[in-house]
Each structure stands twice: as C-alpha cells, then as structure tokens.
Amino acid sequence: MNYNYAIKYLEFEGKKDFLYFAFEEETGILTNFFTGEVVNFHKTILEQIEQVLSKKKRHVECSGNECYWNIGLKETLIVDNFANEGEPSEITVETSELKRLIDEWIAARDKFKEQKAKGEI
Fold first, then answer.
1. Alpha-carbon gap, residue 32 to 34, rounded angstroms
2. Residue-level pLDDT, tens digit, the chain, 121 residues
3. Model's pTM, two decimal places?
4. Alpha helices of 1-121 — where are they, by DSSP H?
C-alpha cells in the first residue's frame, strides 16, 4: 500500500514551530501515531522494529500516549486508543514500510530543525 502524506507545520506567533506528517484520510491513524508516538518515542520504536526484523524478537507490543502497536516481522498493527466511535481505530502497515516512513520523518524533522536554527524558516 502507498502511504501518501503531506508535510505540515503548526505555527505559533506566525512562525513554524512543529513539523508533522499529515497522512491521507484512509490512513489518518498514521497521523495520530506519528504526532503522538513517533515524535516522542521514535528511537524506541525503531529499536523495536529492528529487534523484530533481525529476528531477535518474534514481535513487540507497546502502548504510548495515544496508540498501541504490535510489531510483527511482516506487519505492524497500530490501534488509535482514542478513535471516535464509528471511525476507523486501527491500521495494519508493512513493518519495513513503517520503518521507511519513520526514517523519512526523522530526515524531514532534522532538516526542519536545521533550517529553523539558521533562521531560514
């Protein structure tokens, strides 16, 4: 599956303050996962993914601020613990694809921080 997103920013006092990935509606749970979990726990999540992909662990289950995730060798289940009734509350993503998306987010975040430090944005 293709996970399309747009890079968006939250602004404070007219300045870009926070970068986030806004995924399309049908994969919107990923937006919540990235803003609630990846922002805070990206190193841990990447370590968990690597433990599974390297077969050191069969799977890893974890829960964060907004979501629960269960990382398997082929797929990762992400559940939005606070989804509104009647809205999708979970998504399954290929584990290797999730790793790729997190790596892209880290690269975008690092570039944003660099540009902000230089006063370019």
1. 5
2. 789 999 999 998 888 999 999 999 889 899 999 999 999 999 999 999 999 999 999 999 999 999 999 999 999 999 999 988 888 899 999 999 999 999 999 999 999 999 999 988 8
3. 0.92
4. 29-33, 39-53, 95-117
What whole-number distance in Å separates Cα of residue 99 and Cα of residue 44? 12
91 φ, ψ to 5°? -145, 145
User: In terms of DSSP bridges, do strands 75-80 and 67-72 run parallel, antiparallel, or are they unpaired?
Assistant: antiparallel
Give counts: helices (H), strands (E), the chain. 3, 6
Report the C-alpha gap between 92 and 56 in whole angstroms: 22
| Calpha distance 107→37 (Å, rounded) | 17
Domain carrying residue 95: 5-117
* 3-state helix, strand and coil shares in percent for the chain, rounded to the nearest 5: 40, 30, 25
Q: How many domains does the chain have?
A: 1
Distances (CA, A) of 56 to 3, 24, 46, 51, 106: 27, 33, 14, 5, 24
